[in-house]
Every structure is written in structure tokens, then in C-alpha cells.
């Protein structure tokens, strides 16, 4: 997640839930961009009905602020993927400080998704926030999640991608179709779900 919106003191705060107002460490330097407090609040206002006891996957996690917010608000399990060294250090420090038990994949997004798929683990919510300029990362990750026969999303599960407002994502990627886009400042959140043909009858 490349750097803006870091409050004085070098961190962001958990907005609500069990860890409300706890300060998180953010990695120093220009390699990560924490999702702003306002955008996180918007995101979780939308996700609120889905969070309790959900399996949440935070890809390109940076300091882990989004996944930690999900855990704070009732997610049953959270998985993180991050490769950048400073971000990994901040992420692991935040989890240890808050006493959150979660899996962190330091080999990156593709490795985590393949491992979850191989284990038969399904997610209710997948959030991804690659560097805005890395168009190939959006295409690769969304393409994997929407690939033919992919079962990583549970019935009714969704994918949320944060991206630059001026760079809209395709309306469909494989079996994924966008159904909502929220814009705030220079950023946007696009929500995807599986097309009706790919959903089980129970999820409709």
C-alpha cells in the first residue's frame, strides 16, 4: 500500500471495534501507502454486515491496517500478504502489540492465494491494494480470483480493490463482475462479486 495519510507519530489508528483508537506502526519510507482513515471508514461502513465471523484476506497489506480493522470488527480469521521488508516488520509488530493471531505470507500475494486454494480455504472478503502504478498486479490478482473454476471465494463472497480514481478497473475480470465503485479524493474502491453463473444456488 505507496506513503500518504501517515499522521504525525508515524502511524494510523484503528477506527472501531475491539482495538478502537489503538495506534498502529506504519513503515517508514516511500514504498508503502497506507489506506487513509477516511477511506478505511468508508470501506468498513459498507463491509459491516459481512464482517462478523468472516474470513478476511488482506493482500499487499503494508502495515496491516485494513486486515487489523477487520479483526477489530469481528472477522474470525485474517490472512495477510506482504513482501516489502519495512512493511513486514511494521505488520508483525502491530499484530504482536495487539495480540492478534494471524497468518502473514512474506512470499507475496500469489503464494498466499495458491496456498489457501490448495488447502480448500475460502474467503468471504478479499481486499487488495497494490501500488497504484502496478496495473499488472491488479490484472494478475483479480484474474486469479476470477479464474475458471476458482473456489477461493465462498458463495456470496466479494473482492474489493483500492485503486487510483483516474484508473478505473475493468467491469468484468474472468468470473468477477464489478457492482459498486466508491470514490474519495484521488482513490477509489471497486467491489466485485462472482457472476451469477458461477454462484451456487445458496448464494443467490
Estimate the mean pLDDT confidence.
Answer: 90
Principal-axis shape: globular
Largest sheet: 8 strands, mixed
Estimate what percentage of residues fall within beta strands: 25-35%
How would you sum up this structure, described in words?
There is one protein chain. The chain is an alpha/beta fold. The protein has a single domain, classed as 3-Layer(aba) Sandwich (Rossmann fold), CATH 3.40.50. 28% of the residues lie in helices and 27% in strands. The protein has 5 helices and 10 strands. The strands form 2 sheets. An 8-stranded mixed sheet has the order 5-4-3-6-7-10-9-8, sandwiched between helices. β3, α2 (65-72) and β4 form a beta-alpha-beta unit. Residues 1-9 and 200-204 have low confidence and may be disordered.
Brief sketch in words of this structure:
The protein has 204 residues and is α/β, with parallel strands linked by helices.
Keyword list:
eight-stranded mixed β-sheet; globular; disordered N terminus; Rossmann fold; alpha/beta; 204 residues; two-stranded antiparallel ribbon; disordered C terminus
Break the fold down into its secondary structure elements and pairings.
Layout: E1 11-13, E2 23-25, H1 37-51, E3 55-59, H2 65-72, E4 77-81, H3 85-98, E5 103-105, H4 109-118, E6 123-128, H5 135-145, E7 153-164, E8 172-173, E9 176-184, E10 187-194
Parallel strand pairs: 3-4, 3-6, 4-5, 6-7
Antiparallel strand pairs: 1-2, 7-10, 8-9, 9-10
